[in-house]
Known about the structure:
Oligomer: single chain
Order of helices and strands: EEEHHH
Low-confidence stretches: none
Mean pLDDT: 97
Structural class: alpha+beta
Amino acid sequence: xxxxxxxGVCSRKITFDIVDxxxxxxxxxxxxxxxxxxxxxxxxxxxxxxxxxxLLGNDCGxxxxxxxxxxxxxxxxxx
Length: 79
């Protein structure tokens, strides 16, 4: 399991697995529970690089990042 400490967002930790290039078990600790649970469900089993490319740069409220962007950064750091 990969564990990532996001920066500049409400969530405090992101955990996930990458198996054969696919994302699995994406979970966020903290943040907006409904939205982050939905992200985990939407990306389950999908190509990790594709998901990172899609989510990278997503902004939340002018912060310059978001939980989705942080997930993308975590994926890219672990490919």
